[in-house]
Specification:
- The protein has a single domain, classed as Immunoglobulin-like (Sandwich).
- The chain is 0% helix and 59% strand.
- It has no helices and eight strands.
- It has a four-stranded mixed β-sheet, with no helix packed on it. A four-stranded mixed β-sheet has the order 2-8-7-4, with no helix packed on it.
- Keywords: Protease inhibitor, Thiol protease inhibitor.
- GO terms for molecular function: cysteine-type endopeptidase inhibitor activity.
- InterPro entries: Chagasin-like_sf, Cys_protease_inhibitor_I42, Prot_inh_I42_chagasin.
- It comes from Lucifera butyrica.
Length: 108
């Protein structure tokens, strides 16, 4: 499986994603605060296939980690991917950070 890794520092970039690859997005998260990353809207060329949280090796209570999202291309084309860091129960007014990239899905 071919992985294309994207990090917070890639905000605003255009990512080239072959149809046979998986896009893996790494975003820092501290769930103990209630703020979690969530995909915003729908993409016409990507489908989220899984999500996981990787805790830091620091055993301290409330230590953060990394949210990792996996996306597979659905069809060739150009789309955007947006995520927001928020407390879902408080609604959009709680958004404290956003992440967005453009994705160009190419065949082969």
């Amino acid at each position: 499986m071919k992985l294309i890794d994207v990090f917070e520092s890639d905000y605003g970039q255009i990512i080239i994603l072959p149809m046979d690859a998986t896009l893996r997005v790494f975003l820092e998260e501290k769930p103990s605060t209630g703020y979690r990353w969530q995909v915003e809207g729908r993409s016409n060329c990507l489908k989220m296939v899984s999500h996981e949280f990787l805790a830091k090796s620091d055993p301290a209570i409330g230590a953060g980690g990394t949210a990792v999202f996996y996306f597979k291309p659905v069809k060739p084309g150009y789309c955007s991917l947006s995520l927001k860091l928020w407390r879902s129960w408080e609604g959009d007014k709680s958004i404290i950070k956003q992440f967005q990239i453009a994705v160009s899905v190419i065949s082969g």
